[in-house]
Amino acid sequence: MEAISRRNFGRLAVAAAATVPATVRSQTAPSGPPIRIGYSMSLSGGLAGNGRPALLAHRIWAEDVNSKGGLLGRPVELVHYDDQSTGAQVPGIYTKLIDVDKVDLVISGYATAIIAPAMPIVMQRNMAFVSLFGTGVNTDFKYDRYFSINPTGSNVKETFAKGFMDIAMAMEPRPRSIALVNLDSDFHQRTAESARFLARQHGLRIVYDRAYPPSTVDFTPIIRSVQAARPDIVFIGSYPPDTAGLLRAASELRVNFQMMGGPMIGPHITAQKLQLGPILNNLVVWDVYAPEPTLQFPGTQALIERYQPLAAKENADALGHYVPPLAYSQMQVLEQAVKRVGKIDQAALAADMHANQFDTVIGPLRFDALGEWTEERNLYTQYQGVQGNGIDQFRKAGTQVILYPARYKSGDLRKPYTAGAA
Amino acid sequence: MDPDLVLLLNGIVSGLLLGGLYAAAAAGLSVSFGMLDVVNIAHPAFMVLGALLVALLWAATGIDPLILSILLTPAFWALGAAIYVAYHHFFERRGDEAIQGLAFFFGVMFIIEVGLVMAVGPEQHFADASYANTTWRLGEIDLPLRMLVPALVALAAIGGLVFFLRRTFTGRAIAAVAQDREALRLLAIDPVRIKRLAFGISIAMAALAGGALVVVQPVDAWSGHVFIGRVFAIVIMGGLSSLGGCVLAALAFGVVENVTATFYGPSWSPAVAFGCLLLVLAIRPQGFFGRTA
Amino acid sequence: MSDATLPAMPVSPASRWMGHGSFWLAAAVAALLVILALRGFGSEYAYFAATFVLQYVVLATAWNILGGYAGYVNFGAAAFFAAGAYTTVAIGKALGLGLLPCIAFAALVGGALGLGTGILTLRLRGAYFAIATLCLSVVLQTIVVNWDYVGGSRGAYVIRPREVPWLFDSYSGFLCAVMVVLAAAAVALARTIEKSRLGLGLAALRDDEAAAEAAGVPTLRLKLVATTISGAMMAVAGAPLPYLGSYVEPNSAFGLAYAVNAIAMPLIGGTASWAGPLIGAVLLASLQQAATVTISSAANLMIVGVVLVVFVCAAPHGIIGLFRRSR
Question: For residue B128, what is the nearest residue in chain A, using CA coordinates?
Fold first, then answer.
């Protein structure tokens, strides 16, 4: 029943924030009927590990807004249902939200598999829709009121792996061959496609290029085949359970590559950071945020500091560096558009989102015609000097330095990658 | 050495180690499904239950995960015995264990998984063994202890179980119950008591397998799904009631998977393995290592 | 409900066909009434909830033809369901056809798949058959994941047509009406099978296959017919899925929920008659849909598990069985 009480707690927290904000100095208390924001969120099932931190960030946002006098003077209220990480539940949830709960605004839950099934419902009602961590959702729908909170931008093929390749090609001596490994999934097929495309452009020889299925238990054969192909650099796209398996296998097989990494989603989750520890050293990982001084925006640090005690209490991801900043930004985009428009008008909101820049905890954003970021912001970071398995080293700058893009660069590449071997 | 040969040898060795994990996961099922005819589809879920309990206890105490899983076995034995009592009362006694019993365990599986999510959350949990970062090397062949130790512990446990089934009176009674219930009655042994004991053992083996699993990889509440098909495939290929056959089938399954992954890419390895099983079922339903019918 | 009991003595063909005719008519009328009622309700959410429940009515009824009547437990319901969904994707992409022809194709594909399963598993009984279907599911999923034409592991988008067919107020309404018709047809078909010679043969197969064979029941042929029909109907249940969500990907189309529900629903309702899966599906699917939007946590999955365990323990013959016993 823990989940229920958590949900109730969330309501209570929002309600409390909505009813007793008089304690906040000088701000006027929000009044009138609440502005209801509806969405589906994965609180159980495979996506819940990231869905729950996203929800915490949303709740922090709601408390922040309500304590500052609400939105348009009205309190905000979050209405969300658990989709169990199953896309099939999503259409029902959104029709319920719109038809029965009569929410004023909708946003998306976490990841493509949850965003895409919501699209037809949202499109039918012509509502503005800010999504979270969806890749290429709108390429088929071409919905002009869709806005994506995802740093990859709209031209994934040409930009996603650019940072990785640029770093690699700047190495001395220049690498000549590359191995590509990816999980057979939507996101990682796109990332591998980008790496493949850019590798050809740079004239790199692709000596290994294979996808592995989600049910893989043992990753030793993959790493061994990669080793046997003798690439200079290795680009891997994987999700949490596999990332641990791949890196463990890499450590056991004593790999030694000039550079290894890519979108290895795994160390983004705190538990895995801690478990892998020194194996992460010199791994070049795609990320969306790292606690480096070059990547601080108004509110970022405050959000992380609010999030961590809450997460500890609710047993969610301890550091909250991955999803929460983006989830909070998702709400900030909505908030700023509503404030500028001055009323809940879906067409005007969408027009505003297309026209203006948004200042969020992950930096300034602008949306293009398809609702993707006009300027992609794929970060390539490198773990450096990780010792043991303590959590505190990951809180401070210098452990996960940013190598790319140049405007956020906070450290230099170390090579080779040896999976923790001295 | 020829690089392809090294790849092949390493593929086989890592397949054998993976097979050790599969053997641990399948051995309990070989007792419940193979010997007792209880189609416990929730077996991998019990394994995950064990794994997550080990992970929690490890976080609290820091004791080696495999030792923790051995400490858990009595509790799991009792759990298994209790479940068998319920199963017998509701299904076996009434004689409609086939479909209803299957559905019962399907429900149990759901309850375990969702219960785990509600209790420990949907995140992955892990437990580090002190040897997990060590790899032994024999020439060109790698033996990561992360895979080797769980495999050896599992094989030792299975060996012990085989010994128990062959050499002790109760053990032989369990083996007998698989073949002829009535004969046991003639010996004044209560077949229900024997089956309860045996089902308890099968769930205790799941706890052990859980310990092995959590050493090998991080575990979440759904980690068992990957294993459902594999363990049933292994038990059937192994010829049901034969533990030795089960181990051989598990090792074969691991080797086929890893060699396929090494040479033809990992995306086809599940289909190859399960395709093999479908063929076995179609051509030789008693399994490779089973007695000819 | 006299028709819920298996007729033990041969019925004259004439009266049996009359019975079937009137049942089909009744099913058609019921379908029409449901469509009109939903139309009167006019809420998009009602359409969705109804479509969700009805897809399970078709799936559970289909499963029961093999599982309930013949006693063969199919763990691979999700594979057939997904085969239907992916037929819609593939046919829609290749030939540009709408939903209705896709459903017909899905029936063909599902039927062929069912026949194939039947042939491959001719010699298997009980748990072996169940495991074989489970394997089939894995193999099929691997094939779909590696089949780029239907999107592979990326999943495929199926955009709903802009114009709404015929008199419907929205595409969801149309989809829901299609599902109502499919469900009514599935239930009527199940009853027809149950009351026909085929149903009697399958029941004999379930009770004692060897004895049935000895008594001259063509067990082999009956089993193949049952796997084919059951497979075709499950695929039909899955065919509208891409239009329901606009996006299908292998993990959700082959989801465990479909396999579990396909088994749980008939068992809870009662496997011996056509009404069992209908009652079970309506009850359990409504409960799940309601729980999704009320409790909304992992706990609503718990309901399925607990209800299933309680029912198989306390009411082994399902809800139908409870009523029959209390009479």
Answer: A275
Give the Cα separation of B165 and B178 in Å (integer): 12
Residues A89 and A126 in one domain: yes
B195 CB-near residues (< 8 Å, 6+ apart): B36, B38, B84, B88, B174, B177
Whole-number Å distance between alpha carbons of A373 and C139: 39
- Cβ contacts of B102 on chain C, cutoff 8 Å: 73, 127, 130, 263
Q: Which residues contact C229 (CB under 8 A, 6 or more apart)?
A: C62, C65, C111, C114, C189, C193
State the total domains in chain A. Answer: 2
CB burial of residue B126 (10 Å; 0-12, 13-18, 19+): buried
- Residue among B15, B21, B19, B80 nearest B211 (CA): B21
Model pTM score: 0.84
Chain B neighbours, 3+ Cβ pairs < 8 A: A, C
Given an 8 Å threshold on Cβ–Cβ distance, is B114 in contact with C128?
A: no
Q: Measuring CA to CA, which residue among C2, C4, C3 is closest to residue C271?
A: C4
Do both A215 and A183 map to the same domain? yes
**ipTM, interface predicted TM-score of the complex:** 0.84
Contact B269 A213 (CB under 8 A): yes
User: Is there a single domain that holds both residue A211 and residue A271?
Assistant: yes
The one-digit pLDDT tens for each residue of chain C (327 residues) are 333 333 344 444 444 455 778 888 888 888 888 888 877 777 888 888 899 899 999 999 999 999 888 888 888 899 999 999 999 999 988 888 888 899 999 999 999 999 998 888 777 777 778 878 877 888 888 888 888 888 877 788 887 877 777 677 788 888 888 999 999 999 999 999 988 888 888 888 888 878 888 888 888 888 899 999 999 999 999 999 888 877 888 888 887 778 888 888 888 888 888 888 999 999 888 888 887 777 666 666 677 788 888 888 888 788 888 777 654
d(CA A22, CA A16): 11
- Verify that A17 and A97 share a domain, yes or no: yes
Residue B213's alpha-carbon distances to A218, A219, A265, B63, C188, in angstroms, are 11, 14, 22, 16, 48
Q: Which residue of C has its CA nearest to A137?
A: C157
On whether both A329 and A254 belong to a single domain, the answer is no
| A41 and A163 share one domain | no
| Residue ranges in A259-315 assigned as alpha helix (H) | 270-276, 300-314
| Closest Cα in chain C, distance from residue B26 (Å) | 14
A8 and A109 fall within a common domain: yes
A40 and A133 housed in the same domain: yes
What are the chain C neighbours of A87 within 8 Å (beta carbons)?
Answer: 245, 247-249, 252
User: Domain span at residue A331?
Assistant: 2-151+296-365
Spelled out in words, what is the top-level CATH class assigned to the domain B3-283? mainly alpha
Cross-chain Cβ contact C138/B114 below 8 Å: no
